[in-house]
Protein: VOC family protein
Amino acid sequence: MRLRMELFVDDMDVSVGFYCDVLGFEVDRRAEDYVSLRRGAVVLGLGPVAKLPEHTVGRGFTRQRLTGDKGAGVEIVLEVDGLDELRALYEHCRQRAAISEQLGLRSWGLHDFRLADPDGYYLRVTHGDSAAQGR
Structure:
């Protein structure tokens, strides 16, 4: 099994720019109403909120449902290979985006930093370390 996340965004070009310029993703595939981004084994799909139905019955995605905080209750964790790569990415991101929480060592033994994308999706960027994977 693999995981691919699909995020509904307000402005496709702004979101593609953020993920490519700030976090180092590359465009894997682009259509009029969908972009697939890749960085290593991570695949993110971006789709426009405007293409969603206005209302539906049930819990499906709708424009009305996403008028609030799109990322509420979800933390997207992006993991790089090591602390050196994390530090380099942090410096790169710091020059290009607002950082929500600075790079630091957490109580569970990993370093991370946090930021939000243009639509408010909350991202935690950390490093892999098999000795500290308790979280």
Observations:
- Residues 83-94 form the longest helix (12 residues).
- Residues 4-132 form a domain with the 2,3-Dihydroxybiphenyl 1,2-Dioxygenase; domain 1 fold (CATH 3.10.180.10).
